[in-house]
Amino acid sequence: MKISKIAEVLRADVLCCEENLEAEVASACAADMMSDVLAFVKDHAVLITGLCNPQVIRTAEMMDIVCVVYVRGKVPDAMSIELAKSKNIVLMTSKYRMYQACGILYGEGLRGGESRI
Amino acid sequence: MSEQTRISLEFDVEGDNFVSAGKASEAVKGNLKMLGLPPTIIRRAAIVMYEGEINMVIHAKGGKAYVDITDKDISITLKDEGPGIENIELAMQEGYSTAPDAIRALGFGAGMGLPNMKKYSDNMEIESEVGKGTTVRMKINIQPDSEGQQQ
Lengths: 117, 151
Ligand SMILES: Nc1ncnc2c1ncn2[C@@H]1O[C@H](COP(=O)(O)OP(=O)(O)OP(=O)(O)O)[C@@H](O)[C@H]1O
Ligand SMILES: [Mg+2]
Known about the structure:
The complex is a heterodimer. Chain A is of the alpha/beta class.
């Protein structure tokens, strides 16, 4: 799914790296705990989170995550946005709650990628 | 990479600083990218280093990170003089965490760091003494036969 499509279906405001909106994401991961994100390895993923600190961006960078969606209308601090810009990670904020945002993306065909249990 | 490739990196990791936490891992990832290593290897090294770095920030008031890259493997050593781990077997269990609520609010303390480090490294050893500190050694093989092993 194109990042632009994610922004559209989640009615999200894009906060930075608009130039990457046409990039594709292959899977999604939703978490508020960064170690849960780090337990998930998938290429070109989008992270959906309610957590707003710079560690979210650092975690995303470690995992080669290309886009972060903040739910419940949250907006990250300036430092997060700067960091994301330097790492070329698209940030966007959506009014939807986590459950809704995930449901919408799933319904649009974006899957979680297989997890190894 | 050539036979003689050997890069040694050293970092000071500051305790309780959540703005700088992850910088050492970021630098290591940059180096591995520059060396043109396979993306899975890079990501695994980045994950284990980052989890270990964060652990030193959260649990040990900081420490030192040493990274050795050869054409065979990536060795990561994280050394701190923090409180130590009383029961390593327990600490290795998924979900076990002593992190306080303030740390959880930052997105850490799921008790998944050490299990992740074990899962994504080819070899991991923990040495710890209560009151003295903790040393974690991890190795990631670069050779092709190890590549498909743990993704
Ligand atoms: N360097 C360290 N010094 C002292 N104690 C540590 C250290 N690393 C880990 N521990 C102890 O081991 C526990 C488990 O660590 P682990 O990394 O698995 O989880 P966590 O750090 O609590 O949470 P998460 O990694 O999911 O954010 C910690 O809660 C802490 O008690
Ligand atoms: Mg941890």
